[in-house]
Structures are given as C-alpha cells and as structure tokens.
Amino acid sequence: MRAGSIIAPGLAGIVAAMAAACGGADAPARQPVARPAHHERVIPPRSADDDDDDGVEIEGLKGHLDQADIQAGVEPHHDALTSCFMSRVGKRRFLGGQIELAWRIARDGSVKEVQIAAGDLGAWPIEKCLLEVSRSMTFARPKGGLAEFSLPLDFPPRGTVLSWDEQKAQTEIEDKLPELAACDGAGGEVVVTLYVGTRGQVQSVGFSSPGAPYSDAWADCAAEAIGGWTLSDPRGQVAKLAFRFTP
Questions:
Q1: Contact between 99 and 34 (Cβ < 8 Å)
Q2: Beta strands, E only, the chain
Q3: What is the dihedral of CA 191, 128, 162, 181, to 10 degrees?
Q4: CA 127 to CA 157: how far, in whole Å?
Q5: pLDDT tens digits, residue range 61-73?
Q6: Which range among 38-52, 112-126, 217-231 shows the weakest confidence by mean pLDDT?
Q7: How buried is 156 (Cβ within 10 angstroms: 0-12 exposed, 13-18 middle, 19+ buried)?
C-alpha cells in the first residue's frame, strides 16, 4: 500500500493550523508539527489513460490527487486530529513520538483504507482516534483511479524517557509474544511501541504497520494483553521500547 505515495508540501500548513489550535502554556512543547519523510517514496509510471497535470503533488498506484484536493479533504478535520492527542494524553508527560498516516482513496473520493504506516507514539487510544477521524474524511475524485498519500505528524513529549535498545527490548518481551498470537487481525508485521513505568508495569502501548494494516479489533486485543505485562523496573523512570511482531 505504501509504494507510490509522496508527501505534499502544502499539507504543512494544515498541520501548522492544528498546532496553533493547541494553545495553552505548554503549547510550544506539545504542538503536532510536520516533519520530512524518513525514506524515499517510489512512484510507479503513470498509466496511459492518466490526465496530464503539472500541478499534481500526490500520486498513487494508478490515480492521483492535486495538492489542493488533499488540503480540502484534510483541513476541515484538523481540530479533531489535534484533539485526539490533547484530550487523551492526560498527565502522561512521557508520551510523544511520530505518526505517519497513509490513506488509500477510492475512485469516488471516499476513504478506502487508512493506516498508521509508521510511528513510535505508543498510545493506541490516541492512534485509534486519529484513524477514526481520518476514515471520516472525503476527497475529490482522484484522476486516473485509486490514489494514495501520507501525512506525517510529530507529537513532542513534555517529559523524558529512558530508551531501551532493540536487544534489551527483545530480552524483555520474547517469552510474552505467544499472548499476542491469540489476537486475530494483525494483517502483517506490526511494530509495537510501549512504555514501562513503576514496578515494570506497562503504562501505554501503540502500533504501526509498514505493510498490511492491522484491524482495530486486533489492536484492542493486543493493547489489553500487553497492558497486563510486567517487565523490568526502570527504577523511577519511564522506559520506552519497541519490537516487531509478525503473526
């Protein structure tokens, strides 16, 4: 799903508007902001029946959407997207990270699919809200057929965390992975990000899927299972770790 999409520079204005809506004394540290993609996008050749349009900013596997059409579909929802984070972060100052939402738009302009294609926020309630808002969007009819695009967001934390590296993370969770096998609907490989606090209790967990998207039901099940895990005590700190799960 990811191949064939690029980020439209014009969407930065939408994200800036979202950031401005946060307000408050903590706003400079809490604003969702645009960030550049961490990898190149591969754009397949346009099909022969595609219309010529020098203003195209976003292309999919067959179709494409103009930048203005993307902005018109996303901008009305910027307050709702911002609220997903601001209304759910609560006192968990350690929560923060990056999210890349990736849409697949049907021929009629409706959202065929949206997923968190990459990210390390580690907060499923916030991520689920972002997905729900994104699914409610509508766009102009893509030119040439099915189209894709993505929007990256940053949610800077207000606090600090202790980072556990991949080797430490694997040691902590390897004997617990069978619990996730009981959850149906993972789709493909899932990157799991979680935070561990006092007495090794999991404080928050979230997901991203670089390939086939997971279902909400799988994430609900996985979040409940992982929320019951006890890992090593970071001793007065909050530790953040990530691991890959393949069903």
A1: no
A2: 56-59, 64-66, 97-105, 111-119, 147-155, 162-163, 190-196, 202-208, 239-245
A3: -40
A4: 15
A5: 578 899 999 999 9
A6: 38-52
A7: middle
Question: Using CA of residue 234, residue 229, residue 192, residue 97, what is the dihedral sign?
Answer: negative
Is residue 83 within 8 A of residue 133, CB to CB? The reply is no
**Distance in angstroms (rounded) separating the CA atoms of residues 6 and 44:** 11
- β-bridge pairing 64-66 and 97-105: unpaired
Which of 207, 242, 13 has its CA nearest to residue 100?
207
* Nearest residue to 149 via CA among 92, 72, 48: 72
pTM for the full model?
0.78
Between the alpha carbon of residue 36 and those of residues 43, 61, 65, 75, 91, the distances in Å are 17, 22, 20, 19, 29
